[in-house]
TrEMBL record:
GO terms for biological process: thiamine biosynthetic process. This is Thiamine phosphate synthase. Gene3D superfamilies: Aldolase class I (3.20.20.70). Residues 68-180 form the Thiamine phosphate synthase/TenI domain. The keyword S-adenosyl-L-methionine does not apply. Pfam families: TMP-TENI (PF02581). One of its GO terms (cellular component) is cytoplasm. InterPro entries: Aldolase_TIM, ThiamineP_synth_sf, ThiamineP_synth_TenI. Pathway: Cofactor biosynthesis; thiamine diphosphate biosynthesis. GO terms for molecular function: thiamine-phosphate diphosphorylase activity. It comes from Spirosoma terrae. Keywords: Thiamine biosynthesis.
């Protein structure tokens, strides 16, 4: 399966236009993740792009289809014993320990793991486990559990200079925030990241 690229909207910066969001999807971004269930600027006048948008919410009924439900780690841990999570599976969720990844097999499509590198957007947010150690853990988990593992998406400080390392470490994709929104042209930034993966 192709290496996935997910853009995370940075709520601390001016909100990107719908034109920019759709241009990113048209240029190879697989999904756009909003950390809120009711962000402004979502494409609502056509189905184009809606099923590529992840909305974070603590409950499935807060995310209207065809948008995709992202369940944050704290909400998942709180809901794990409740019926909602058994009958309505989220599309994606987050973890901060790779040991939690296998337990999500068959329950979600994407799992975001962070951080891989010092954050571009969040000062002082840096990894506690080196990437080469994470690569060993990923390999060991894949060797032990071959089926139904969600696609593993690396997050944190990823840009054109290091995205190829994320792929080499065994991740199935990369989530991008600062690399897109701290660039005056996010579409060009995305193209440079894609070129780095292909190089």
């Amino acid at each position: 399966m192709a290496f996935q690229l997910i853009g995370i909207v940075d709520e601390n910066r001016p909100y990107p236009s719908k034109k920019t969001l759709l241009a990113l999807l048209a240029n190879g971004l697989n999904y756009i993740y909003h950390r809120s269930a009711t962000p402004v600027g979502l494409p609502t006048d056509s189905l184009y792009g809606q099923n590529q948008i992840l909305l974070a919410a603590p409950a499935p009924d807060m995310v209207p289809p065809p948008y995709r439900w992202h369940l944050k780690e704290a909400d998942r841990l709180r809901l794990s014993a409740q019926e909602d999570l058994k009958t309505h599976l989220p599309f994606s969720t987050s973890i901060h320990n790779l040991a939690d990844w296998p337990a999500l097999a068959g329950r979600v499509e994407l799992v975001f793991y962070s951080p891989l590198f010092p954050s571009i957007s969040k000062t002082g947010y840096a990894p506690t486990v080196p990437l080469d150690e994470l690569a060993r853990q990923v390999q060991a988990i894949r060797a032990k559990q071959h089926q139904d593992l969600p696609r593993l998406i690396g997050l944190g400080g990823i840009d054109a200079t290091n995205v190829s390392q994320v792929r080499q470490a065994g991740f199935d994709g990369a989530a991008l925030m600062g690399a897109l929104w701290q660039n005056h042209d996010p579409v060009t930034a995305l193209q440079q990241i894609k070129a780095s993966i292909s190089a």
